[in-house]
Amino acid sequence: MRSTRMSAARARGRRRTVLAATGLVAALALTATACGGSGEDEASHKPDAAASRAADGNGGGKVTLPSDLADRLEEHGIDVDKWKDGGWKDWDRDKWLSEAQDFVNPVIEGLWEPERMRSAEEADKTVTTKDASAAQGLSEPEPVPVRAEAEKTPYHDNAAPVGKVFFDSPEGPAVCSGTVVKDVNHPGKSNLVWTAGHCVHAGGNGGWYRNLVFVPAYNDLGRSEAELGSASASEIAPYGNWWADWASTSNGWIQGGSESGGAGAAYDYAVLHVKPEQGGKSLEETVGAALDVDFSAPSAAAAGQMGAWGYPAAPPYNGLQMFKCLDAPGRFSLSADLPSMYRIGCTMTGGSSGGGWFRVLDGETVLVSNTSIGPTDNTWLAGPRLGEDAEAVYQNMSRTYGGR
Hints:
Residues 1-34 form the signal peptide. By secondary structure, the protein is an alpha+beta fold.
């Protein structure tokens, strides 16, 4: 791959050549109308170690819980009545357990209204200069920054599988990006969304986030903040809100994830199983698109051109529009004892976390990684290589919860 830094002009020329050869943008657009790990890190794939069952909301900030979920809350010392009456909004930092069975995510109708969505802060993982330079001998030279390009509107015609992931953290409403992916065990009827581990779980020093919801093709027409005040619900969420009733991430992220990504960055991926806030068909049927996931974990040199899509929310962006970066990846590593990651030049900021990275494989666009970490100057992004560990998380989600 890169042995020296290229000039910006040379890089742009090379990117145009490779892009023309792969047709990455064209392939991704077609999906709107068509329907590695270390081996030592095992997925969090036990039924009680990966997820929660959602309950139906009854509006007004209250929820109705099925008996099995109420029993689980009681087992953790939670007063169910208080929890239903608004206790779900309270975070006790001392009791914010990191055990996977403590992730509960009942549907609360009306919680994610447009104004609350716009208030969500980016959930970025910023790598310090010290961290990024610690393994210079293991990483290829830093890539030339690639200026993020706005996706064409309407998004449902150009990048329908891409959307935003909203959730509540102890610090308040937060946002990431995500992608609708196919469910190999339930063809044509997938309810699976791929995102980053740090968009569902805080890592080694915390627990699961709450009120996770996925909004595909958010702000479909790419309207400005001023224009969104008069936008219709169908323009903001053309396919509605999809609540995560189950979630899985890797043990590598749960145990090693940190504010800067840390040892968990190479395992920073997650899968959500979602359902609509109000009835209906599967996510894939509703959106009309879903992408396969490539778990072959190709080396950076063999991966070819990649494109990263997402909704950057930190300045100079505001999280309202979808952007993309296209580049040939290089190898990036934070430590000799961690798997290497992919790194591309890209100016997208926090909020793009969890957004899918795509490449063309055998003529089809597939998801090959997701945005995990980036530097403070927002010149590049890094994402994990998806190998056996990532496939174990995916397969367990599909087999155990996919048909529900």
